[in-house]
Amino acid sequence: MKTSTRVGIYIAVFISLTIILGYASTAPMGQTQAQNLVGEVQAISPTTFVIYDNNLRIALIEFVPILGPVYGAISSYDTGLVLSATGQVPNATTTGLFAFVITILTPIFWLEFSCYTLAVEESIAILVSIKNRDLPTREWKWLVCSLLFVAAVLFVSARLEVAMINFLK
Question: How do the domains of the chain map onto residue ranges?
Answer without folding.
Answer: 3-168
